[in-house]
Design brief:
- The chain has eleven helices and ten strands.
- The chain has about 300 residues and is an alpha/beta fold.
- The strands form two sheets. An eight-stranded parallel beta sheet has the order 1-10-7-6-5-4-3-2. It has a two-stranded antiparallel sheet with strand order 8-9.
Length: about 300
């Protein structure tokens, strides 16, 4: 990573989720303003409709805050209706490309509006998921963006065995989300070392392992765990963030590091002690572990 790391923020760190029941959604202008104030120059899109769907309007809003768009997250049911999944992916990929993004981060959703299910797919459903995922990657490429598959809590691919099964059975690249992988039993450092060439996007989270253990034991729902501090500012949890970054550097990773701290808000907070302050802490920590400030590109291409 001699050219410096590419670093971005994401609206989920400000509690902005694709789930309607997740919590309070802060206004986009405030979130983008706080991203810029924290020191970021790039962001992910957030849920469909959060930023303007018209690409020109989206670019104009981002430009006002000195931000560029790098990726967008989409959770789609991949093991049921292929036509529906391809339609969603095609539409979202076209919008991302038109707004300047280069990556669609795709998760294999389970039916419903939560991340609390833990269904085990049948062999037939797995074949359909893998085939549809490959087709989705081709559709997105035709629209001008790449697909990075995101193992995610409460989806069809969350556990270590499921992640390995997917890696073995298809060649779609992976989004290394350190928090979701750790929650599902995958060591993100080991995965980065073993499958680093397959990683095309990174969501860098720190994790409170005590809270994660309660989720794994069924003592906490995923959404309640997030409210209870499952994810922490980088360097304030139990994940060896530095080891993850080093492992990725060792395999020549050149993609984006999206610094995430998934949050669920019940009320607005003051910028001085809210999500913006936590995002600034994460960025400052990342700067420290990834080298001198002048060697890091925070959201800008060299």
């Amino acid at each position: 990573m001699n050219a410096g790391s590419r670093v971005a923020a994401a609206p989920i760190s400000w509690g902005v989720s694709e789930l309607a029941t997740w919590g309070l959604r802060l206004p986009a202008e405030r979130v983008l303003s706080e991203m810029a104030a924290a020191g970021f120059g790039a962001t992910e899109l957030g849920p469909p409709g959060y930023l303007p769907e018209d690409p020109r309007a989206c670019r104009e809003m981002l430009d006002r805050h000195g931000l560029r768009l790098v990726a967008g997250f989409l959770a789609v049911v991949l093991h049921e209706s292929r036509a529906s999944a391809l339609g969603e992916v095609g539409t979202h990929a076209a919008e991302l490309a038109a707004a300047g993004a280069e990556m669609l981060v795709l998760a294999a959703a389970l039916p419903g509006e939560s991340y609390e299910r833990h269904d085990q797919l049948t062999a037939t459903q797995w074949r359909e998921l893998l085939s549809t995922l490959t087709a989705c990657a081709a559709v997105a490429a035709g629209r001008g963006v790449k697909v990075s598959f995101h193992p995610h809590a409460g989806t069809a691919v969350e556990s270590r065995d499921q992640v390995n099964r997917l890696l073995d059975a298809c060649d779609v690249d992976l989004c290394l989300d350190t928090g979701h992988l750790l929650l599902g039993g995958t060591d993100p450092v080991e995965l980065a070392r073993r499958a680093g060439r397959r990683i095309s996007h990174v969501h860098l989270k720190d994790v409170d392992l005590d809270v994660a253990t309660s989720v794994r034991a069924g003592e906490l729902s995923y959404s309640q765990a997030v409210r209870d501090g499952l994810y922490r500012p980088l360097g304030q949890g139990d994940l060896d963030v530095s080891a993850v970054v080093t492992a990725l550097r060792d395999v020549g990773y050149q993609g984006w590091f999206v610094l995430e701290q998934d949050t669920a808000l019940t009320a607005e907070t003051e910028p001085a002690d809210g999500p913006g302050a936590a995002a600034r802490q994460s960025l400052e920590y990342f700067r420290r572990i990834d080298g001198a400030k002048q060697h890091i590109t925070v959201g800008k291409e060299e």
